[in-house]
Amino acid sequence: MDFGKAIRKDFPIYGRYAGTGLFCYLDSAATSLKPRVVIDAVKEYYEAYSTNVHRAAYSLAERATEEYEGVRAMVAQLIHAPRADEIIFTRNTTESFNMLARTYAEHFIKTGEGILLTEMEHHGNLIPWQELARRKGITLHFIPIDSATGALVWDAATFGTFLKERNIKLISLTHVSNVLGTINPIAKIAAIAHEAGVIVAVDGAQSAPHLPINVQDLGADFFAFSSHKMLGPTGIGILWGRYELLEKMPVFMVGGHMIDDVMSTRATYRAPPLKFEAGTPNIAGTIGFGAAVKYLMDLGMDNVRDHEKMLLTAARHRLADIPGISFLGPMDAEDRSGVLAFTLAGVHPHDIGSLCNEAGVMIRVGDHCARPLHKKLGIPASCRASFSVYNDMDDIELFADVLKTVQKKLSAIPVSLSHDAVSAGNN
User: What UniProt keywords are attached to this protein's entry (predicted)?
Assistant: First the structure.
């Protein structure tokens, strides 16, 4: 299904820049644009029933609680979670992994045991495990990638033995790389991991906005993602976990609302998910996220995926004849999602981004919070175009034309891609 212009009327920001010719947004992997229904849902909360949740018996507070908890059920439906009380509201995917590291892993993984990551992880699914390893003497292991194809290098026949030999207790890996776009074989990895008694946590920040997700079919034990990358507000994220694991996990933050009873010297805590949700939550953001989830489900995630594959295929085809361009990640749109990262020989990524911006084309440049991956690839930075439901073929054509012009302007200028010259980037 070709969405593109057909749904741009739903996104107010396009109306604001209509007629300027300076709004080609290709940075949805960092943060997506927001449809009117999301903005209206947040506005309605603040204007009509801006009260706290779970704390009062009057009608406005009851409505706030009903709307808020309704989002939990809707998210469970989106990802095919068995039950709504497995959905924990966090601030974002990064907080979800910090929570997981500080609760499940801190409590159940012991000194001398191992955690397995991949070489393509976003910092949000890397640094929490580094800190845990430093605190507890846990060893981090990494599944390597093939730099040419962007695929994980692993052998299903020997993987179970590898996990046992290295005493791996948790695998935490991205579903879709935010640089390479690689869709990792989560279900295959999880099946072997579970045979070896290993828990599997999945970073779904770049998959939940683009792919139909069924956490049961994936075989995940935990799955984390963020609202702001899937048409919703910032400041609201999700950690889904199997209920039997959530029950065993210690609390993360403590304070109001997450308690069952409080005495002078001790407290007892509520059942999941509320025991992980201390204090007043981001009510408006959560309600806005619910509107985003409904919007995506109404479009149909299979349709979202088909639209994205069309854009990815078209973009690779149109950009392929630009001199010096090198794409990162898989060649086939079937094997990738969301993003198209590349470099241009002899041209600094920041110069590309700056000149694209002058033409109204917004792409991301930097290391995209995946610095170890860029080091593995032998580059300090890359350019990244990323797509969502509101992009169309006109965006691809404009981007290709602008990039060709940029390449002609800059290719004659020698540049050294020194690490110090490139900022950390983000997302």
Answer: Pyridoxal phosphate, Transferase
